[in-house]
Amino acid sequence: MSVTTKGGDKGQTSLFSGERVNKDDIRIESLGTGDELVSNLGELKFIVPNYAQMIERIQKNIFTVNSHCADTSGEKFMIADGELEFLEEFIRNGEKQLNLKGFIIPSENIRAAKADICRTVCRRFERRLISLSACANVDAAVIKYINRLSDGLYILARLVGKENQ
After folding, report:
1. Does the pLDDT value for residue 136 go beyond 60?
2. I want to staple 34 with a disulfide (CB 3.0 to 4.6 A). Which of 13, 66, 73, 121 is the partner?
3. How distant, in Å, are the alpha carbons of 86, 97, 116, 152, 153 from that of 93?
């Protein structure tokens, strides 16, 4: 199998269903932003190895979100029960360790800066999902998960920003 199909040479690509759409279609824009987030998280996973398992878990959930958004057949891929609670627990525990006050300029260290890049891509992903939801059925739980994920990435950035290494 070749990765070069030449099917996109005229500015179109295929959805999960096989439907051809323009590459700037909101569905493709949403999926691409989710893919960008997964890739940035992949880099973060190696920068902050203490959180590698959690980050990989999140990456798998982003794949599920992208599958949810790409499927136009009616069958929806959903994030497993408990994943939102997992993020919320991480946020609560992180807040207990931090003394958060006001805005923070992302610059504590390279690991915190990378986590903040992931957070901003996550926020853009959320905006794309909101746009997508205007023309496709995006489950509210998916948007809620992505919203909470950006909060979790903020906490992660602050936690690794406190580290000396």
Report:
1. yes
2. 66
3. 11, 7, 19, 10, 13
**R_g of the chain computed on alpha carbons:** 17
Tokens of 77: 């891929």
Report the alpha-carbon distance of residue 153 to residue 165 in Å, rounded: 19
Phi, psi torsion values for 2, nearest 5 degrees: -105, 145
DSSP-derived pairing of the beta strands 20-22 and 12-14: antiparallel
Sequential DSSP letters for 45-69: HHH-GGGHHHHHHHHHHHHHHHHHH
pLDDT band at 14 (very low <50, low <70, confident <90, very high): confident
Helix (H) or strand (E) holding 21: strand 20-22
Q: Is the backbone of residue 18 left (phi > 0), alpha (psi -120 to 50) or beta?
A: left
- pLDDT per residue as tens digits for the range 31-68: 999 999 999 999 999 999 999 999 999 999 999 999 98
Interatomic CA distance for residues 6 and 75, integer angstroms: 29
Question: What is the per-residue pLDDT for 9?
Answer: 80
